[in-house]
């Protein structure tokens, strides 16, 4: 070819199958650096499946899918993730009217969830193959940057990539969440029924009750409210009679656990509201402040009594759950072959810290009804102070 004046290896627009001068320099290091290095482009072939609420019925969602696959070009390395999302939204809008706004709203709010599945046919990047496990997606900055860098490192002037944008069907997600909530509620009610049956177990020679309680006999919110009351005890430094939840880091702030507060907290637990647990109330429940004057007045109103370590620990210490410490304590006092069974029983009854064995509400009789032997009950209750003195 060179004898008739053609230089196939030194052209920016070579015939099919040949690299351009820019590619030869980037990929193989052949020849001098081109005066004008050609930019790298991505040909992004896309399809999508989206959902939007039906007008007049926010509980029903209609599907909006792309009119087949469509392609557009992106200059590699020229944009970030958010710009990419906006560019894709614009291109999807050209394909189906309304798609762009649906995508932008979902990106901005984070709901419904969308997966940005991506794939490349590059030998040097098997992690982006469409059959790779886990399936590659660019849902965050780091994944997007990795995808873009692989394309730049390939050195090719043009790279084909495939994007499939799939939105979670909100109706399906809501149904799943409702089913999960019902399953959690059943588990709680079932445990409450088991506890009730254990507490009513007849003594030897007595008749069994006509009808034992079942899960259907228990309201989930009542079960959760009772759990809250069992954990957060009355504390006369804050309220004379009501149980209280004390702020974990600010001991001058607390929440009186009135019936209304318990109902709000239990309802949030039942619905699995993000950030809410037995030790973390909903944001809608506001803390109250106890002034120095009120603290002094409450202290003065208390009858003078002899100091009691047990009562002091019950009334003034906020017990934070500590699974690791709980396991260490069981390992400290229980034989190896019985530890797992004991830990399972304690977990079922929300014993989340060794100090709970000093609580007045956790009695020997109650622990025996959980299925623990007298010896194990004694070991658990009698060694808390000794365990506190050991290095943790």
Description:
- The chain is an alpha+beta fold.
- The protein has five domains: 1-38, no CATH class; 39-168; 174-201 and 212-218; 219-316, no CATH class; 323-388.
- 41% of the residues lie in helices and 14% in strands.
- The protein contains 14 helices and eight strands.
- The protein has helices spanning 21-28, 81-95, 99-109, 141-154, 170-199, 220-231, 259-270, 292-301, 309-316, 323-333, 339-348, 364-369, 374-382, 384-388; strands at 41-54, 57-65, 70-75, 114-120, 158-167, 244-246, 253-256, 288-289.
- The strands form two sheets. Strands 1, 2, 3, 4 and 5 form a five-stranded mixed β-sheet that branches. A three-stranded antiparallel β-sheet has the order 6-7-8, with no helix packed on it.
- A hairpin with a 6-residue loop joins β6 (244-246) and β7 (253-256).
